[in-house]
Design brief:
Number of helices: 11
CATH superfamily of the largest domain: Tetracycline Repressor, domain 2
Shape: extended
Order of helices and strands: HHHHHHHHHHH
CATH architecture of the largest domain: Orthogonal Bundle
CATH topology of the largest domain: Tetracycline Repressor, domain 2
Distance between the termini: 50 Å
Radius of gyration: 25 Å
Oligomer: single chain
CATH class of the largest domain: Mainly Alpha
Largest sheet: none
Number of domains: 3
Amino acid sequence: MRADAQRNRDLLVAAAAQVFAERGADAPLDDVARRAGVGNATLYRHFPTRSDLLLAVYADEVSQLCASAETLREEASSPREALHEWLRLFMDHVEGKRDLALADTAQVAERRDLTLTDTAQVVGRRDLALAEAAQAAGKADPALATADTAQVAGKRDLALADAAQAAGQPDSAPATADMAHAAGEGDLVLDDTGQVAGWHRAMLAAASSLLADAVRAGDVRADLDVRDLLTLVKGITLAAGDRRQAERLLSLVNWGP
């Protein structure tokens, strides 16, 4: 990517993060382009859909969150404080990601329903053709064509199953579901599960390294599990009425050895 194109992309992602934070993830994309100081054509050249822009914002946020672990390791007064501060940043991540993660859910659900409807219509036409063929062959009841009917039904079920899987039904959930839940992305509607898994691994690695430092320093209990910590922080953040209450709830956790 050329330097000027990369600069425009970075401006758009930064502007989108600000606009979405201020007005929600359904804010007009024209406002994003205006904030970035570029034209709408530039916006859509880099991000053809709102989902593309949301993903870019999210990826940038995850990158910053992971990079902050090393900064905190160097600047915090103790490994325990570094861990605490990173978990507070993780709170910000969980708070800010809800609109970004869920904004595209309705659109994806609509595409899924259309896919299943189209498949059902095709299957209906195929069954009708089978019935007409059976009647033309002199069979008063098309169900008498047992073998053919069973074969078509099997293909129909397979087609519907494939459509459901392609549309993101529960049976096709990625193997990273537990990590997504702990990290606060269980509701994300994304197409590139490999990218999502990479984000989860990066966040898990960042938290794990800080926790390991705190354990080695004797600042926290040795039996703390990083997935438990992330799940706990997510639960506190989502359950608390506001950030002040979330901070108070987090302070109640017994971290000591």
